[in-house]
């Protein structure tokens, strides 16, 4: 009995109970705040419905020009961004110049009969894309939402961005994030709050919320983003697009802001693609992986009949986590039934260790050294501001960070009352859980799992619903690849928002995630535009 109580984090459970209570009493207030639904203008140009692979093929075949595509996307961005507030800084003029140069290059290659040689190493030739600000696009803003970094520019492209540009793609802009990507709602005091294109008074999630909002609005064909605790997958789920957190160590992360010196950081942070079409993900992952692409064998065909599907509609029995909405649970079950009809084998085995997601994720994540101190005084780095005083100053606009950033600092300071002495214990639990999931999934298994406790919530709802991110964060800690796929757009009295799920595989089995995402796109329709 004493051993049981030693391993039960009472503080975590008390926080979980408190969040459930706050969610219960605040839900009516958030409903009043956001019940009136408005969304971005509808998509009227058919070309904007095409994915990156289709655009690349039509450009190199001479069916359309890169200039036409880039011009069209710039027009759409200008149309929707006043509603979204997703763009931090653009490079439209430079992008158009590069598009015209690309068209000249393609025309000359077609005349000489060398077009195949030209596109061999440039599979994205002429296709525009957008970049999460933290991933670094040379010459554009690199402040990552921090007031003290206002005006700072990236001196070079991040490593993954450089690979995408080498493949012929043309960057249009950098998009909004929370301060230093440390938050699950895209808001900061420098560039403000980004809105969900399906329901403007709700959040697109974070930290890649700017990218997800643009993609879902058909204002970008694909994105270079990053994920350290659900930062690709939560926004993808809230905005109904595809996002993939790859196996760590495959895609280079050099140039990402922030970067930590801790040896665990490259295992937790991954740079990855987001897109509106599932078929684009293998292409983008191959490009972004560079010399490491051979590790993933993405070109090897996957037969759905060979797949074994595991599934969980929630993280077992954990009072520290909010209940998963019925629409999400139903989506997981519907996906399992569909894949079964497609010939996949369904397993009823569950991973009970995921009920400790909160303790494992918080304890292991916050054991990293050099995590940015959100309370550090920019004017005097040796001085630390008072957390609770800063929180009190938020309502009157006197704080140095957004409430989102200060909430991260609160979690870091308290670690949800998990003693530091328990770090090794939870690292050991993480290792055992990783071994169990990796062994059981093997080279043919995937786990279908919620990407969050619910669909997109109102701005500010991230605080009482914070534990929802513990459906994505554990897989950063465990180093497993995970994709998000949209299944439906619910149209009832409560929401007209995307409903998505998460697809997890064993390390280096990313192709299974992508194959299942594509199969689900065939069965459920994939991305649906806001309207």
TrEMBL record:
The active site is at residues 132, 207, 231. InterPro entries: Amidase_dom, AS_sf, FAAH2. The keyword Membrane applies. GO terms for cellular component: endomembrane system. The keyword Membrane applies. Residues 69-514 form the Amidase domain. Keywords: Membrane, Transmembrane, Transmembrane helix. The chain crosses the membrane at residues 12-32. Pfam families: Amidase (PF01425). This is Amidase domain-containing protein.
